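Work Package 3 (structural annotation) set out to generate three-dimensional models for the target panel prioritized at the project kickoff. During this period the team completed the workflow that converts sequence records into discrete structure tokens, so that structures can be stored uniformly alongside our sequence database. As a representative example, we reproduce one entry of 158 residues exactly as it appears in the project archive.
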Amino acid sequence: MSKVPLTVGGAATLREELVGLKSVARPKVIEAIAEARAHGDLKENAEYHAAREQQGFIEARIKDIESKLSNAQIIDVTKLPANGRVVFGSTIDLANADNGDEVTYKLVGEDEANIKEGRISITSPIARGLIGKEEGDVASIETPNGLIAFEILEVHYV
């Protein structure tokens, strides 16, 4: 399996979730299964079946996170010699060249992306169009909504 890029913060978030699943969620569902078993007949016991289903979800998520972390290439943007260029992990202040609207994006791995929080996947059309550009450059990017031109106002490495 190929390496999956992750920011330092993204890796930390996955590790925290993994610890929570293993130390809190897993013991709770095991306790719920034991309690449901104590109620008797398992064939018609909805609590038991719900707890078993929840256990399946938890175990699958644990496996998924462990796999992602084992295949992760953790990139610390503060240690990259970026010299003002847009690179993975950088935060970019942009202005839409057509209407002047300003937006800030952080380029992250696919698992970390959350547009509502301003984190876009490195594989997105906007991110691919910005990679390698510098402050002051204008990037014309083909998006599903058509061609958009962004002026790069500032690049941060945090």
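The domain at 79-156 is CATH 3.10.50.30 (Chitinase A; domain 3).
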